[in-house]
Design goal:
about 280 residues, alpha/beta, 8 strands, about 30% helix, binds thiamine diphosphate, binds iron/sulfur cluster, binds magnesium ion
Length: about 280
């Protein structure tokens, strides 16, 4: 990792780019999400050594390798557990978490609920392509019930998971949706999410152009700016979600819950921690 000493305010988006070349397919939405991370970090003027990006497993979860800051590519579905531990131990760091719809809503679904509930000051960004991209296109929790594919002929018939609704019901303090085709909009959402105290959740619609070729053209035409401005009223936000078509882009909800931040333990030396487990 290349650390950049000096004046963070003078940093450009390119300064947050690592020397590792992305292996994503040409045209994958995740390329634009990566650029929006870089743009947001530059706008926030965060020194790279003050930022950590934690992920799980999947195409989307490769993002920490491509960013010039601290990063950890964890195990499938466990990004929020790792990030929560890091933020509690190092509250001085700005911690962002990157995931996909399979990683974050399926195997990591339970962590999602409780991260919203705990309200630790994290920014959680899920690149949702309604598919398991890395493992070649199995249906995910957000796949449409009638999406017909060789592995699920005729579709799964299952109702999709509603990420924004789950986040709201579970207590997330900031909830938004972006589209990778709107790079500037995604960067703005990330800036707002990082500035918002507590647990911030952004679903970014990020097409998989290899296993959901139908998506890219369709999503460009379907996304539209939110008809209403953000609200701080959870009941109003919930009512708005009743009419949500899944393509409404913008900030839905900004709450005012105090973030959870337990006082760090005075002595974190391994020898001291060991004594706590002595039976
Ligand atoms: C414990 C475990 N189970 C399953 C896998 C296989 N696996 C790797 S990536 C992935 C799905 C990723 O889907 P998603 O999070 O939507 O990311 P995408 O590739 O679509 O960006 C799965 C099931 C794994 N690596 N580890
Ligand atoms: S398989 Fe899909 S999600 Fe993965 S890099 Fe290619 S286009 Fe992106
Ligand atoms: Mg996916």
């Amino acid at each position: 990792m290349n650390m950049i000493p000096g004046d963070a305010a003078a940093l450009e988006p390119a300064d947050y780019k690592s020397s590792v070349r992305p292996v994503w397919c040409p045209g994958c939405g995740d390329h634009a999400v990566l650029l929006s991370f870089q743009r947001a970090l530059a706008e926030l003027a965060l020194p790279p050594e003050q930022v950590a990006v934690i992920s799980g497993i999947g195409c989307s979860s490769r993002i920490p390798a491509y960013l010039n800051c601290y990063g950890f590519h964890g195990v499938h579905g466990r990004s929020l557990a790792l990030a929560s531990g890091l933020k509690v131990a190092r509250p001085d760091l700005t911690v962002l978490v990157a995931s996909g719809d399979g990683d974050g809503f399926s195997i990591g679904g339970n962590h999602f609920l409780h991260a919203c509930r705990r309200n630790i000051d994290l920014t959680y960004i899920v690149m949702d392509n309604r598919i398991y991209g890395m493992t070649k296109g199995q249906p995910s929790p957000t796949t449409e019930p009638d999406w017909d594919t060789a592995i699920a002929p005729g579709g799964t018939g299952l109702s999709p998971f509603h990420p924004l609704g789950i986040a709201l019901a579970s207590g997330a303090n900031f909830i938004a949706r972006g589209f990778s085709g709107d790079l500037g909009g995604c960067a703005r959402l990330i800036v707002e999410a990082v500035r918002a105290p507590g647990f911030s959740f952004i679903q970014i619609l990020s097409p998989c152009v290899t296993f959901r070729k139908d998506q890219q053209r369709g999503w460009k035409n379907l996304v539209h700016p939110a008809l209403e401005t953000e609200t701080d009223d959870a009941a109003h936000a919930a009512r708005r979600l009743m009419d949500d078509d899944g393509f409404d882009i913008g900030i839905l909800y900004r709450g005012s819950r105090e973030p959870y931040q337990p006082a760090p333990k005075a002595n974190l030396a391994p020898s001291h921690l060991e004594t706590e487990f002595v039976i």
